């Protein structure tokens, strides 16, 4: 089964991450598939905007695929962080609007993916969070940068350092989410309604608007580099080994600070 499903209609490309057996977890194959789709969108004039969502009603993307992390060297971890950062920057800088339609869990890499999109709409059952600290890790795909930009430094640090999940309504209250709706059907309908409105505007003006807003965050380069370096540093600690082992074994980790 392909990890991505796509459907194109009237200028909108709907991209559905489809790994229902893994809560749509973001593995390397999914990231590679997303890169191909986004790069095609840059070039293909028939694609004027993307609605990005997850298969089913339980999860948008419930996180990265932790099993892919456990055997990484520090250098490989750094390269993986940069791979995710580069993909999400490609999404953020896309001259065509990308709307995240968040159904269910958007955690870790899933939250980072949603934040890279130009706006976020969520169902009432959606949950957001950066729980990497529970694994002895930090966000590595831009989460330390974008979360602070969207909700402010204090709230971002609270979420990153506690690993807490928040509801869709809480996410809306702090500016992480634009709109909250009741059902999956309402989610799809509203995402398309907003996209349809944007697509009636001048495509060049839309592209320039995205570019101009993103230009206000040009300081990001050093932040992303620091994030990738510290993500990699965390993966060679005993705490990371304990955190990921405990996650896989479904028990509470016993961190030692080493």
Tell me the layout of helices and strands.
Layout: E1 4-9, E2 12-17, H1 28-43, E3 49-54, E4 59-61, H2 74-92, E5 98-102, E6 105-107, H3 109-116, E7 119-123, E8 127-129, H4 143-151, H5 153-162, E9 165-167, H6 168-173, E10 179-181, H7 184-198, H8 203-215, H9 220-234, H10 238-249
Parallel strand pairs: 2-3, 3-5, 4-6, 5-7, 6-8, 7-10
Antiparallel strand pairs: 1-2, 8-9
Describe the overall structure:
The radius of gyration is 18 Å and the shape is globular. The chain has helices spanning about 30-45, 75-90, 110-115, 145-150, 155-160, 170-175, 185-200, 205-215, 220-235, 240-250, and strands at about 5-10, 10-15, 50-55, 60, 100, 105, 120-125, 125-130, 165, 180. The protein is built from 10 helices and 10 strands. About 50% of the residues lie in helices and about 15% in strands. With about 260 residues, it is of the alpha/beta class. The strands form 2 sheets. Strands 1-2-3-5-7-10 form a 6-stranded mixed sheet, with helices on both faces. A 4-stranded mixed sheet has the order 4-6-8-9. Helix 1 (about 30-45) links the parallel strand 2 (about 10-15) and strand 3 (about 50-55). Helix 4 (about 145-150) crosses helix 5 (about 155-160).
């Amino acid at each position: 089964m392909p990890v991505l499903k796509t459907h194109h209609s009237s200028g909108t490309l709907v991209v559905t991450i489809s790994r229902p057996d893994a809560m749509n977890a973001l593995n390397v194959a999914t990231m590679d598939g997303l890169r191909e789709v986004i790069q095609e969108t840059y070039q293909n004039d028939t694609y004027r905007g993307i609605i990005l969502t997850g298969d089913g009603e339980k999860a948008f993307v419930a996180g990265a695929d932790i099993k892919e992390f456990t055997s990484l060297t520090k250098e490989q971890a750094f390269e993986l962080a940069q791979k995710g950062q580069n993909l999400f920057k490609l999404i953020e800088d896309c001259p065509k609007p990308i709307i995240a339609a968040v159904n269910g869990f958007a955690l870790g890499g899933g939250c980072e993916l949603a934040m890279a999109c130009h706006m976020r709409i969520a169902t009432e059952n959606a949950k957001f969070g950066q729980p990497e600290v529970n694994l002895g890790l930090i966000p590595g795909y831009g989460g330390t940068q974008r979360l602070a930009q969207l909700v402010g430094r204090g709230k971002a640090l609270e979420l990153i350092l506690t690993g807490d999940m928040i509801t869709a309504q809480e996410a809306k209250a702090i500016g992480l989410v634009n709109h909250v709706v009741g059902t999956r059907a309402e989610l799809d309908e509203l995402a398309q309604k907003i996209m349809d409105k944007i697509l009636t505007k001048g495509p060049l003006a839309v592209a320039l608007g995205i570019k101009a807003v993103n230009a206000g965050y040009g300081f990001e380069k050093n932040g992303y580099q620091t994030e990738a370096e510290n993500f990699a540093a965390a993966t060679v600690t005993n705490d990371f080994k304990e955190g990921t082992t405990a996650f896989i074994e479904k028990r509470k980790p016993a961190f030692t600070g080493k």
